[in-house]
Amino acid sequence: MSAPPLAFGAENPSADCIADSAGGLTFDLDAPGSAEAAAHWSAALVLRRRGGAAGGSEDEVRLPLAPSGAGRVRAVLPSTVALPEGRWDVHVACGEATPQRLLPGLADLRSLVDRKPGPSTSPLAVRIPYATKHGNLSLRSWLRAPHAEAGDVLVGESGITGHGSLYRVEDPAAWLAGAVVEARCRRDANLVRTAEVTVDGQDFTFAFSYAELCEEWRGGLDVWDLWLRGPGGEGTEPVRIARILDDVADKKQIFTYPAKSFSAAYAPARVSPYYTVDNDLSIRVDERPPVAAR
Fold first, then answer.
1. pLDDT tens sequence across 87-98
2. Which of 34, 132, 197, 255 is least buried, going by the fewest C-beta atoms within 10 A?
3. How far are the Cα atoms of 48, 61, 94, 102, 258 from residue 2, in angstroms, in the given order?
4. Do the domains 147-286 and 14-144 match in fold?
5. What is the pTM of this model?
6. Does the 147-286 domain belong in CATH 2.60.40?
7. Is the pLDDT of residue 246 over 70?
8. Architecture of the domain delimited by 14-144
9. d(CA 50, CA 209)
């Protein structure tokens, strides 16, 4: 949970963010305190991973602040700086003073819209700034290789059809040859449904019928997580299907799909795709009214 903003004079300082298509971020904010304090060698933008160990090398990143003119300072988070997956709270620190939370200012995220990663096998870095429920500035970070990006998802009369694209592998078409999409039931790890994929270069299409997803349903909530699995061999470990290549940090409440009624053997059911709190693609089978799924 994010803490409420701390006092910083009348209010906490805010930071403007500019994103680049490679996954880097630039932060611009008014100089904290006096000009001498802002120029101090210890002045930094501090990123802390929520739920991580305080001061842990994997859970805190310090970015030096440098004057950028007009009484402002700047910090840069290059795409080459590793930022493990998670939610990172953004602070400003100077000297021995307690780091203070930053508020979100203007955000230029145009380069993230319809982002198309280039050919590479290096991990795909995605960082999206957003405002927490307390009004603070935080980042949602993903670091994935390979990455299966979810595209259009269609809720049809008899089943759900999904489209996606594979990135960060040397030869996407070869990787996808013989690949399948697995729907894995959270309730029972032994329940797995498999769909063959149709391949077009680095793009793939798959479909699951309501009948196969409801066959073992016995009321309550079943969640099926979707994974893309290669035909085997080195570098074809299963990949979680997700949608992260845009400017929306939390898609669960934004990208919503209709629930389709289905006459399952046990009882009438509702089936619908949805995005999890991590922007991964899943399918839910539930009763009416639906039970909340994480």
1. 999 999 987 778
2. 34
3. 11, 18, 21, 12, 31
4. yes
5. 0.87
6. yes
7. yes
8. Sandwich (2.60)
9. 38
